């Protein structure tokens, strides 16, 4: 057998860590698995061969010393009569392969307990839309929302059993919560698992079904939920309320996601933590200076306009913006528009002519 560069096959350096080797294998195995569209069985076998050696510290040490010839006829990847296509997998530890391909293709080694599998069952998440005023989005608000969703049955507590009747081991899955089938792949035999349809993954069935939910463990209910919207939220943000999604039997409840929509306010524009507004002043105010009132999200404040202020000048009001910027607040920027009078009386014209205000 010609020498093979297992590191090159997986696309890693010779100094690669076990974690890097595993990540490379997962990526390539997913790409070339023969059950996938565009898969390549030969390429897949080479990837598996390389990973089987490099993932084992002792085999990797021998490979680094002697190359792939060290495994001709003696290793778990020797050519022989068993396996697929003359490829012998009889000595390979498939534990890690099972876990990896369980993640990639939905089957695994079957070593986890029924109880640990039950903790993986989770109800669906729910997303709803919520409209807020500009002020509510800035300072936060408590809102009561109402929605219809599956909730834990109050009578049986999601067991599906009539109170006092108890449960028995599911005969279809033997209490495992999953139904197991054997799947033959290029790397050997793997167990494929799916949630038991009879017990919904709990491994138990009620002796007598709950009269309220009929054994389902959950029921559709209209529920009011009080939620606290934090300060500083903005358009399109998602607020997550844990445990307020769909409930399921023998599993955890999903989450509720609230998508924020903020109503516009003609007085203000927002960019991040800063707020922008505009105000118009007269020619005399700009030339001589003045003190004017400015609307902010906190109320009206006084802004001093210095003499000689030009149109399109911006003034900064510190800490009048959105809360949350470095545990403080953003700022408000006020853009000044100087309005030139369009209609003047004869006397006003005479006064301006006498001043002869020209750019020097």
From TrEMBL:
Cellular localisation: Cytoplasm
Domain of life: Bacteria
Cofactor: how bound: Binds 2 Zn(2+) ions per monomer.
Keywords, comma-separated and alphabetical: Chaperone, Cytoplasm, DNA replication, Metal-binding, Repeat, Stress response, Zinc, Zinc-finger
Ligand binding (Zn(2+) 2): 170, 173, 196, 199
Domain CR-type: from-to ranges: 140-222
Residue intervals of the J domain: 5-67
Domain notes: The J domain is necessary and sufficient to stimulate DnaK ATPase activity. Zinc center 1 plays an important role in the autonomous, DnaK-independent chaperone activity of DnaJ. Zinc center 2 is essential for interaction with DnaK and for DnaJ activity.
HAMAP family, alphabetized: DnaJ
Protein name: Chaperone protein DnaJ
Species name: Candidatus Uhrbacteria bacterium CG_4_9_14_3_um_filter_36_7
Gene name of the encoded protein: dnaJ
């Amino acid at each position: 057998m010609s020498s093979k560069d297992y590191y090159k096959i997986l696309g890693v350096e010779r100094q690669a860590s076990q974690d890097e080797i595993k990540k490379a294998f997962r990526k390539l195995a997913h790409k070339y698995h023969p059950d996938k569209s565009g898969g390549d069985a030969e390429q897949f076998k080479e990837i598996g061969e390389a990973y089987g050696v490099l993932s084992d510290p002792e085999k990797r040490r021998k490979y680094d010393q002697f190359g792939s010839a060290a495994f001709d006829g003696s290793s778990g990847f020797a050519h022989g009569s068993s396996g697929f296509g003359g490829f012998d997998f009889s000595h390979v530890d498939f534990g890690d392969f099972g876990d990896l391909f369980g993640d990639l293709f939905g089957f695994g080694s079957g070593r986890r307990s029924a109880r640990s599998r039950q903790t993986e069952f989770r109800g669906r998440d729910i997303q709803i839309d919520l409209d807020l005023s500009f002020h509510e989005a800035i300072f936060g608000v408590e809102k009561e929302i109402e929605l219809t969703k599956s909730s834990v049955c109050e009578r049986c507590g999601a067991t599906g059993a009539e109170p006092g009747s108890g449960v028995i081991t599911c005969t279809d899955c033997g209490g495992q919560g999953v139904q197991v089938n054997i799947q033959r792949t290029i790397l050997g035999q793997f167990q494929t698992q799916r949630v038991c349809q009879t017990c919904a993954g709990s491994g138990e069935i009620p002796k007598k079904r709950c009269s309220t939910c009929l054994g389902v463990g959950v029921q559709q209910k209209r529920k009011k939920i009080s939620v606290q919207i934090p300060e500083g939220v903005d358009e399109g943000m998602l607020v997550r309320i844990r445990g307020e999604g769909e409930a399921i039997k023998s599993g955890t409840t999903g989450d509720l996601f609230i998508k924020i929509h903020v109503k516009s306010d003609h007085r203000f524009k927002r960019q991040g933590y800063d707020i922008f507004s505009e105000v118009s002043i007269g020619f005399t105010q700009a030339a001589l200076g003045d003190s004017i009132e400015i609307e902010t999200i906190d109320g009206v404040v006084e802004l001093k306009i210095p003499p000689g202020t030009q149109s399109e000048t911006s003034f900064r009001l510190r800490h009048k913006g959105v809360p949350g910027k470095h545990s403080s607040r953003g700022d408000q920027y006020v853009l000044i528009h100087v309005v030139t009078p369009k209609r003047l009386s004869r006397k006003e014209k005479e006064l301006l002519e006498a001043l002869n205000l020209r750019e020097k």
